[in-house]
Structures are given as C-alpha cells and as structure tokens.
Design brief:
Blueprint: E1 4-8, H1 17-25, E2 32-36, H2 37-40, H3 48-57, E3 60-66, H4 74-83, E4 101-108, H5 125-128, H6 130-138, E5 142-143, E6 147-150, H7 157-177
Parallel strand pairs: 1-2, 1-3, 3-4, 4-5, 4-6
Helix pairs in contact: 1-7
C-alpha cells in the first residue's frame, strides 16, 4: 500500500486560514502521515536521521507551504539543505529517494491572473518552481505539478471550503493512482 507524507512548513500557520483549512482537510488514514516542521523544529535544528527515516517510509512526499518570495519558507530551505544529503538523496550513491514522488501544495496571496506572462509577477507559478523540480529530479524523484490555492487574501468561506474539498480529493487520488 503506497504511503503519503504531508510536511507542513508555515512559520505563521496560526494566521493562515487557507493553510489551516487545507491541513484540516487531510484525511485521517493509516497511509497518510502529517508532519509539521515548524512544530517539530522551532529552533531550526533538524533531526536529519528522523527526517530521512520518514522519507524512506513513504512513497509520496507532499510539501504544504505558502509561496513566499517566489519560493518557500526558510525552514523548508534548511530542511532541503540538511536532509537531502549527497550520497543519500543524490550523487553517485544517493539513491534513497529514487522513484518517490515530490508534490507541493502551495497557497499564494495573489490571484492566478497575477502569475501569468502578462500578469503582475510576469511568470507562472510553475516557472518559479523550477528549483524544486530540479531538486526532485536530481534525487531521482517524480515531480508532480503542485496543488495551488491562489488569491487566498480574497477567498471567502465558500471558496476555501471548495479548495479544501478539492485538496482532500487530490490526496486520495494520489494514493489511489499509485504513481510512485
């Protein structure tokens, strides 16, 4: 049975209604593990062996985070730097993640139209995510296009509820499709 690890990385989670609703939408199932990095490592001292063990136990790795400055929160970058070690995750002998899937669930304050060639940011979200795609590829992982919730500053209760239902279905479809 494939397993999914959902890693939440949000430094101000208590202030993010969208991320809270998405986090709460994750089904309580044996094949899904929820892991909050800021709760686990508020001091940024990451237990590398623990994190690597979690990665080994799961087929799908989903990072849930806000899209900060066209990237990720600082703890996610630190996690990538520390956990995805040469010789373990990549390099000649770094094959531990080969065949696993890298997925991101992102929230943006700006609306979808802002992330277009002619929009405010002049690029799509997928273009900004190239470093994550390349990291996944370097580790031999399958990169899956992200689940996006955009324009979160303008979304009402109905739209947030729809996003959470879509996210729940997305997670279940990942496990049922068995892409890993």
């Amino acid at each position: 049975m494939p397993k999914l690890l959902v890693i939440l990385i949000h430094p101000k989670f208590e202030n993010s209604k969208a991320n809270q609703i998405l986090w709460d939408a994750i089904p309580e199932r044996e094949d899904i593990t929820k892991h909050d990095l800021y709760e686990a490592y508020p001091d940024f001292f990451i237990d590398i062996k623990r994190e690597q063990s979690l990665l080994l136990e799961h087929d799908y790795i989903l990072f849930q985070h806000p899209f900060y400055w066209y990237s990720c929160p600082a703890l996610m970058k630190q996690w990538i730097d520390d956990v995805l070690e040469e010789g373990w995750a990549y390099g000649r002998t770094g094959t531990k993640l080969v065949g696993k899937s890298w997925i991101q669930c992102l929230t943006t304050g700006g609306p979808e139209v802002a992330y277009t060639k002619d929009g405010f940011h002049r690029h799509t979200v997928n273009e900004f995510l190239l470093p994550f795609r390349r990291t996944a590829e370097l580790c031999g992982m399958n990169y899956v296009d992200p689940f996006l919730v955009q324009g979160t500053f303008q979304l009402g209760e109905k739209q947030l509820s729809e996003a959470s239902n879509s996210f729940r279905k997305f997670l279940i479809s990942i496990l049922e499709s068995n892409h890993a």
